[in-house]
Design a protein that fits this description.
Radius of gyration: 22 Å
CATH superfamily of the largest domain: GAF domain
Number of domains: 2
Order of helices and strands: HHHEEHHEEEHHHEEEH
CATH architecture of the largest domain: 2-Layer Sandwich
Helix content: 40-55%
Distance between the termini: 29 Å
Largest sheet: 6 strands, antiparallel
Shape: elongated
Strand order of the largest sheet: 5-4-3-8-7-6
Length: 259
């Protein structure tokens, strides 16, 4: 491992649960000798990648990391990053995949992809406002949103778009608890009749939910095999998209070995 690689590898030990690390802990975590770690961290500090703080002079990530993160966001916004993820997800499932983003108190469809495998498909419209209570995307977002936000949404009038739309706040709260346990939301006919959809949340670098990735299919095509394939594919795709935008799932988000 070269000098640059060694220095950069030290940055990988910082995470949400370890935002500040002392020299001794860095030495232990890296397996390098203390003199080498000290020299590398001094070089990173001179370049602004780390800084020392507190009475114990522990290291934390510096402003240069923020600058590069901002450049990354400008260079690779979520729309362009999501396109390949959506295409791969549609190819794997044979169904319509779509991404929705939380914008203020609305959930808006941002982008989608169709599979050429089936002539009959669920059609999507970009920038369409989705209901929280009637869609799998909305339920995935509500399940991981701040409690106050979820309660604000559920305290508003909940209209029924179809006979299958659940509008009882208590029933919705019970469903949200189940989604938090499984990590995936399911809706059958809640927004459009005869549409069966699954969704997983997408998280930002602060581990906050910013939207949802979903697969929507005609209910008639939702076989037992598809009910296994789609959730597994969604978990992997959701983890990939969250990772590519620099995000992280909360510590209590259910992990799946296929993700």
């Amino acid at each position: 491992m070269g000098t640059v690689s060694k220095a950069l590898s030290l940055l990988t030990f910082f995470n949400h649960g370890r935002t500040g690390i002392g020299l001794s802990d860095l030495t232990r975590l890296s397996g390098m000798n203390k003199a080498t770690v000290y020299r590398l961290m001094n070089e990173l500090q001179e370049s602004g990648f780390v800084e020392q703080t507190g009475s114990d002079r522990s290291y934390r990530l510096g402003p240069q990391v923020l600058r590069l993160a901002a450049l990354r966001e400008a260079a690779v916004p979520i729309l362009s990053v999501s396109r390949q993820v959506l295409r791969d997800l549609s190819d794997e499932t044979g169904e319509t995949s779509h991404l929705s983003l939380l914008q203020g108190s609305q959930l808006n469809s941002l982008s989608h992809a169709y599979s050429p495998r089936n002539a009959t498909r669920v059609m999507m419209e970009d920038a369409k406002v989705l209901t929280f209570h009637g869609t799998s995307s909305g339920m995935a977002v509500l399940a991981y949103a701040e409690p106050d936000f979820a309660e604000t949404i559920l305290s508003q009038p909940l209209g029924a778009r179809t006979p299958e739309t659940i509008t009882d706040p208590q029933k919705i709260r019970a469903q949200l608890a189940g989604i938090r346990k499984s990590g995936i939301a399911v809706s059958v006919g809640g927004f459009e009749e005869d549409v069966h959809s699954h969704a997983v949340p997408v998280f930002d670098p602060d581990r906050k939910v910013i939207g949802a990735l979903a697969v929507a299919a005609p209910a008639s095509r939702m076989t037992a095999e598809q009910k296994q394939l789609i959730p597994a594919a969604l978990r992997r795709a959701g983890a990939t998209l969250t990772h590519r935008i620099g995000g992280s799932a909360p510590a209590d988000y259910p992990q799946d070995e296929t993700a």
